[in-house]
Every structure is written in C-alpha cells, then in structure tokens.
Design goal:
The structure holds two protein chains of two kinds.
Chain A lengths: L3 E5 L9 H10 L9 E5 L7 E5 L8 H5 L5 E3 L5 E3 L9 H5 L35 H7 L11 H4 L6 E5 H15 L8 H5 L29
Antiparallel strand pairs in A: 1-6, 2-3, 4-5
Chain B lengths: L1 H17 L33 H13 L3 H5 L1
C-alpha cells in the first residue's frame, strides 16, 4: 500500500488558513489545540512564503522513539497514530517533534495537560472505525470512508495536497514543469518587477507601467 | 613519614588506575513496541467490508482530483 504524505507548495499557499479551519471544524477540535497551522516566513516582506504544517507522519518518527509508554503506532499506509487511552500527556513527543505537531489541551486547572492530540491524517485512531468513541477522541475517520484529509481536499489553491506520496510527487513534478521556475512563476516580480531594476529593490506600487516596456519576468498568461 | 608517603602514593596510583576500569557509557537504544489497543484497517468496515482493492481505487481517484491539470484538460 501507498505511503501517505502531505505536500505543501509554498508558491501556491496564500495563507488563507482554510486548512486550519477545515481541520478544526471537521474534527471538532477544542480551543487551544491546532492540529494544523500555517507558518509564514518573512511575513509582510515581498517574497514572503507560507506553508501549512501538521504532523508529517515521519517514516522514522521521533515521537514514537521517545514515548515512554509506547502509545504510538504506524498503520500499513504509513500514518502515525497514537492511543489516547495510554498517553500520559508527558510532553516528550512535543519536544522530540521537529514540526511541533503534538498538541496538549489544557484539560484542567493549574496548567494541567491533557492527552496529546495531533493530526491523524483523518484516519481516526485505535477505536472501531467511524464509531462515536473514535470521533470523540481522534476526530473523523475519512480514510475509512475512502476520502483523503479534509485540509488537503478543500485547499482552494491546491497548495496543500495529501495522499499517496508517489502520486503527490508526480502531481508536483507536473506542476513545476508546467509553471516554470524562478521569474517564470507568477508572483511579486511578475506583478510589480521592472526590467533593469535591482533584484530585491521595491517597485513603486501604483506607478503606471510604460507601454513601451516589455512585460517583466516573462509572465505567463 | 615513610608510611604516610606510601599511603598517599598508594591512593594516588589506585585513583589513577580507577580510570582504566571505565565501562562504555553509550546507551543501547531499544525501539519499544506499541502497547495500546489494536486498530482496525481503514477498509475493514462498511462500505468496503475488507475489499482493499476497492478502497485503494477510491483513494487513488480522490488523489488525482487534487491534480487540477488533469481536471481542466
């Protein structure tokens, strides 16, 4: 069987946070827990990039390695899941994870941590498929319904795609070869760049473009 | 005095040799095994009822719907 993966295309992500919202709505995730979030690098600076981050379902997952109660398991599809009945909420997985995927609900007073919660690739957990117990603990099991994660499926720009890693790689490869790279990509330089301007120099917004000047950056229509 | 020197020398030699008996301190990591409840396969329940092939086909179709180049052509 395929190995399930997420892939986020930084050229397409528009930081709409639709994936975050869809995830929270689909699984009825409580306040303070974000299974998925959008990270923006160089926010507000021309050329900023955003990516949507959640559990990456690592092939050699550090969270599995450090868990003192061994509550993590990997499905045949490569999805990393955990048993909340076993989790003691110690937080080791949070320190081990390079993506900050494990989340801990503030379950009680005095900052008491609840059981760890993380992206399940919409695959539920170790409860009967699509049961009430599974939904309450882990959220909806879309994989058992023959569907892919809701964050990827509803992404408006298809920046975030999810599913079989080989298929995702093929989709991304076709996308990159079609749209080109560097200045050929529709972006800031295409919209506002001027020929002859120093790289990185801010263009004058609102300045009328000279009719004689050729379109900058070889924009594609 | 001589006894004192012999004692100090003995202790010093003993302490110096104690380092020779140092054992390797690298921890041998052992991967734990899952201790929780067994999970069902995604295709075990309705509507797949154990038909893995149909389930994989459904997922493959959904996967391709994420490729807008396929959808618009």
């Amino acid at each position: 069987m395929a190995r399930m993966k997420f892939l986020c295309d930084a050229e397409r992500c528009i930081e709409c946070n639709g994936c975050v919202t869809a995830c929270k709505q689909e699984h009825e995730i409580p306040w303070g827990v974000n299974r998925r979030r959008v990270v923006t690098i160089n926010d507000g600076v021309p050329g900023e990039r955003s990516i949507s981050v959640a559990c990456m379902h690592c092939s050699d997952a550090p969270c599995m390695a450090v868990c003192p109660v061994d509550c993590f398991y990997r499905t045949d599809d490569g999805v990393v899941l955990h048993d909340k009945d076993l989790c003691i909420g110690c937080g080791y997985c949070f320190y081990a994870c390079p993506f900050g995927a494990p989340q801990f609900p503030q379950a009680g007073a005095f900052g008491v941590r609840g059981k760890m919660d993380k992206c399940t690739f919409c695959a539920g957990g170790p409860e009967p498929n699509n049961s009430e117990a599974e939904f309450r603990k882990y959220g909806r099991n879309r994989l058992a319904e023959g569907k892919l994660p809701v964050c990827a499926e509803m992404c408006s720009t298809k920046a975030l795609i999810g599913g079989d890693g080989d298929v995702l790689a093929e989709i991304y490869r076709e996308r990159v070869t079609t749209r080109g790279k560097g200045a050929e990509v529709w972006g800031w330089a295409t919209a506002y760049g001027r020929p002859g301007a120093a790289p990185g120099a801010p263009a004058a917004p609102g300045a009328p473009a000279s009719p004689a000047s050729p379109p900058a950056g070889g924009a594609k229509s | 005095m001589r006894q004192m020197i012999a004692l100090v020398a003995g202790v010093t030699i003993g302490a110096a040799l104690a380092g020779c008996g140092e054992r390797p301190q690298v921890v041998n990591y052992k991967q734990g095994t899952y201790q929780g409840k067994p999970d069902q396969k995604a295709y075990d329940t309705a509507p797949w009822n154990g038909n893995k092939r149909d389930w994989e086909l459904a997922l493959a179709n959904r996967n391709q719907s994420q490729n807008e180049y396929k959808r618009i052509r």
